[in-house]
Amino acid sequence: MTLDPLPLAALPNRLVRAGWKRELTVRGALCEGPAVAVVGARAASGQAMARAHAIGKHLAGHGVHVVSGGALGIDGAAHRGALAGGGTTTVVLGSGIDVAYPARHARLFDQIVAQGGALVSMFPTGLTPRRGTFLQRNPLISALADLVVVVEADVRSGSLSTARAAKIQQRLVCAWPGSRGTDRLLGQGAAVVESPEDVMHALRGSPRYPAPVALDATAQAIRDAIAAGARDVDSVVRATGLPVRAVLRALPSIESRLS
């Protein structure tokens, strides 16, 4: 069990390939085998948490390590799924290695280490978490994995920053459709997952992509207006001649294509 910072020369090969240049503190042991990051909303729906748990359990049952951020919601469900599948999982903390956050996950974190997984932190011992530290640690989540699965997210979810980091690190990004954030990712080229088996196929090099959906005439007019310089609803209405209600109704269907 390592509690001193790992020097850069001792970092796992996966982190080296991702260009990681910061020392880490680890409780437990980092995994070098195939790994998938499973992330998403803290205030997740029950259905999404069941999906995250099922993915974690399925991956663990096939010898795949599960990485997540230890938070409430999707993260915790994915970690618990990995344990239920008899596998290992890594928690990337947004705090110092000795600060269990959220506190209600302290026992879960102990179970993770006892089952052969790890807690890892890029922050000094004793540091309490804040919003900025979670965003800072998100690229480490993707760097420790071969691909990232976003199960459920809003468009402002921190898990989308993990997906952005994954693209920079040349990791595959997958998303489960049905939430605004994941639908945006799919519109930006993410692979689609609708079952744990889809995740395994993606990990093995056979990701599935959603079929492109053509914009209807209203959405196309709005997109053309935005491309021509319209920057708010009023300017879109002026450019297209469409009613405000029609513009507001159509915007969600094209926002992922504008990102």
How can the largest sheet be summarized? 9 strands, mixed
Share of helical residues: 40-55%
How many individual domains? 2
Amount of beta strand: 5-15%
Distance between the termini: 43 Å
CATH topology of the largest domain: Rossmann fold
The number of helical segments is: 11
CATH class of the largest domain: Alpha Beta
**Helix/strand order, N-terminal first:** EHEEHEHEHEHEHEHEHHHH
Architecture of the largest domain, CATH level 2? 3-Layer(aba) Sandwich
Cα-atom radius of gyration: 20 Å
Spans of at least 5 consecutive residues whose pLDDT stays below 50 are none
Identify the overall geometry: elongated
Strand order of the largest sheet: 1-2-6-5-4-3-7-8-9
The structural class is alpha/beta
In total, the number of strands is 9
Question: What is the typical, i.e. mean, pLDDT?
Answer: 91
Characterization of the model:
- This protein starts with a strand and ends with a helix.
- It has a nine-stranded mixed sheet with strand order 1-2-6-5-4-3-7-8-9, sandwiched between helices.
- It has eleven helices and nine strands.
- It has two domains: 199 residues, Rossmann fold, CATH 3.40.50; 42 residues.
- It has 259 residues and is an alpha/beta fold.
